[in-house]
Please model this.
Amino acid sequence: MKKQKSDVVIKPSFGKQMKQYGNLFLFYIPAIVLVVIFSYIPMAGIIMAFKKNPNLLGSSSAIQGILDADWIGFKNFEKIFTDPDIISALRNTLIISMQKIVILFPIPIVMAICINEMRGKIVKKSLQAVMYIPHFLSWITVSGIFITLLSYDTGIVNNLMQFFGFDRIPFVTSNDTFRGVLVVSAAWAYLGWNTIVYVSAITALDRDLIEAAKIDGASKWQQIIHVTLPGILPTIAVMFILRIGGIMDAGYDQVLAMYSPYIKESGDILGTYTFRLVKEAGLLPQYALSTAVGLFNSVVGLVLVLSGNFISRRLFKRGLW
Amino acid sequence: MKKAIAMLLTAAMSVTLLAGCGGDDGSSTPSSGGAPTGAQDSKESTPADDGQGGNKTLADYEKETNLRVFVINSGITDEEFNNQDIAKLIGEKTGYNVSYVQAPAADPQAKNNIFMLKEDYQIVNVTKDEFYVLMMQGALAPITEYVEASTNLKGAMTDLVWDSARGSDGEIYGIPYCQPKNVTANGLAYRVDWLNDYNAENPDAQIPVPSEENGYSMCISDFQKMLEYFKGKVASGGYPMAVRNTSALINPILAAFDVYQEWVDIDGKLTYFVEQPGFEEYGKFIDNLYDTDLLYYAKTPQDTNDITMMQDGRAGVCLANHWEALNIEKVSAPEGADINAYTDDNFGYMAALVPDEYKGDASAVRVFSSQYVDQYGVIPVHNTAQQVAGAVDFVDKKLDKDLFLELSIGVEGDTFEIRDGEYYPILGAEHFDKMTYADKFLNGTIMEDYSKYWLARARKSQAQEKIFFTINYNIDNTGIKSPVTMMPPNDVYNEYWSKVNSELNATLILNLFDKATTYDQSAVIATWERFNGPDVAEAVNEWYATWSSKDDFNTVKPR
Model:
């Protein structure tokens, strides 16, 4: 059927939009200024990845120090990727991130649906509040809580295990259990907060659709599968793409707060590797090497975001772009 | 109307943001407009001579009298620090208007920012390693000319100490802060009452209590026997000995295996501790203690530490720094007792262990003694000649003999007293209110005087005095220093040492404090070699071969 003229939506030209709403574009300015100053201008520092370690301390300015350093092409990358430690750190980063995505990504969606289905308003609100409070604690505090609870000698978990006849387990200092501790503590700290996003998405769903499903005789389960989940799919897709983009960040501050030589094999990630490059690789911080690692992280992150977006568009017809 | 307000707010936010991100407007810079920045210009911007053909003094230089000084963190706010009586006294006596900024406790990189961003500081206190890096990067102003022109500063320290502050061009780049005496910082704290119980129960196998007679030492086998006995004395969940989560090296025990310092001269070559002959035996000894539950190691910083375990009876021995003794002993003080005058006789200290063949031989005791120079006051290179002259003059004035005494330990009869030629603090609130942070205000010391004054600071509490004079008993005949503390900046050392040291520590922790592993010296050496340890050793020995003071530096020889 031919579309009626009145149905056709004509997108106004940029000039027309400016004329009509031009003053509203001013609201963009703080955001643009912030992004330019804190995200785009610092990108110029990427050149350090292709230069000798700059003399930032003794030059007339830090920028001059960077400009004066000699170009060395890809030598920093060669140096990094011939270090067996970075291969191990890369592997650990990907494993820990994947574990967090596979285990932790679906849980907030399920929890949001459960919370949405709860009847008591007070209980519902209290539960949400209790769940997202851990998000505001620093990783030093959270790791302190978990290390105390899981302590081999005095932790309540090991005391209970011993009481029930099991052997004590060095949860935080064993390569067998460390990644599990990371996932569980991340769940405790972040699940509540992540759940809020999905609760908001569910709240914004058209209630008429759910009412219609009810009238058509849909059970609770069918309402969830056929109405709620498809309704929040765009939100899930966006969150998933963003999460995939952050795959190279396996939780640097979380790992650092619990780090010890005992778990280097399973817990040394790119973030802690870079930290050591800056802090311990020499008495002089290795800015060039750590920039190279950072650039590598960012490139991989960008590729993953683009891939995630592509897959999302193909599978769910939804994406960031 | 709403649109207009919104536009106004948005514009205001943007302007504020831009202003906030803008550079320094220069209003905080004390130097007047147009003055050439950079101390390299100092010779040009100051009078070439005094006009009389004689030696110049600091009085001949034009000086900036408003100074900003960056000091190490004291655990109080900057406002409190600046309001200390000592700060006011310094301002009054030197005539300088000084504002102090403390390094953020959790951000050691803050010092780098000062140099990177050319922040307005005239004196920055840095560690020895930081000093060398900054000097090699050309970030420091040369101050030789001003030191030569000083009244008190130049003669306050020995040439050996000044040499440690010189670059390869012969210029002085920092004001050294010396450890005033040859001292050892830590020893082993142990439960004397439990050891006495052992001796009472075992009249035929006595363990001599550490005392003057045996140089406050114990032999290795007695120490192990003592730990085994303590196993039955510690509270539930305890261990005979506890070690904190920092390092795998326990100096008073290392000394029993002939490892006396991190770098020791063996057959004319400086050898790092892991390559010293006795280190493997040390590793096996500690590994055995851990595997047999005689030793507890706090595997993470959040695990219970050794001092807490000593306090609550869950440990019978721990490594203790002399400033920690009060914490250990005060727990048993009755309510209302003067903590600083209190000691608990149940706790004792020993300086070091000795091999079994030297049991009871006080002359065989050897201890690690601390670095000679551990801090420098430096002047960033971007300061003007007037600021550099002002900063050095400020330090010079602080080293006036009378003022230095007052800055170090206060006023006689008020905060200290002299008994038999020794300086003692007058303990109490008065002393602590005035003198707690005194050493944080010092740059440079009058070495000869400070070695006496400093002891008063070690007597701040009777518990500290007790441990300090125990572990430092006969130190002039037992303490061995590391020559590397006197080594000038060295490229190879700077590049690799920190990394190799950190990796070695991790390897040692895994080897010593894990029941699933047996101590493996070859793994330790492999780490040393993998992370350029031999390169470091080579660089250190290249310098050592040419060091003229090597024969005089350590008067105490290995056992």
